[in-house]
Amino acid sequence: MSLVQEYVLYVSFDLALLVTIGTYTLWISRWIATARERIPGSIGNYVTGVSECSQQRGNLKDNGYRMQR
């Protein structure tokens, strides 16, 4: 095998590796996006910009310090 053929082989392998990594990266990002859609309150996060946990803490601050009679 000549030096040029070896170089082409290495470049081909590197390109194939990059394509494979890119495919897995895309797959993982899609998987994460799907998982986020299934989490309750995550759609509200995008709309209001406030997480459900923060909203609940805010409710506790509003109602938590009042004395019950």
Plain-language structure description:
The chain has helices spanning 3-38, 42-48, 52-63. It is rod-shaped. It has two domains: 1-38; 41-69, no CATH class. 0% of the residues are buried. It is built from three helices and no strands. It has 69 residues and is an all-alpha fold.
Task: Present the secondary structure layout.
Blueprint: H1 3-38, H2 42-48, H3 52-63
Descriptive terms for the model:
rod-shaped, transmembrane, membrane, transmembrane helix, mainly alpha, 2 domains
Structure summary:
With 69 residues, the chain is an all-alpha fold.
Contiguous helical run count: 3
Output the structural class.
Answer: mainly alpha
Coarse shape: rod-shaped
Unreliable stretches covering 5 or more consecutive residues:
none
Could you tell me how far the N terminus lies from the C terminus, measured between alpha carbons in angstroms?
Answer: 90 Å
β-strand percent reads: under 5%
Largest sheet, strands/sense/barrel: none
Question: Secondary-structure element order, as H and E?
Answer: HHH
The number of distinct β-strands equals: 0
How many structural units, i.e. domains?
Answer: 2
Helix content: over 70%
Mean pLDDT: 65
Radius of gyration: 25 Å
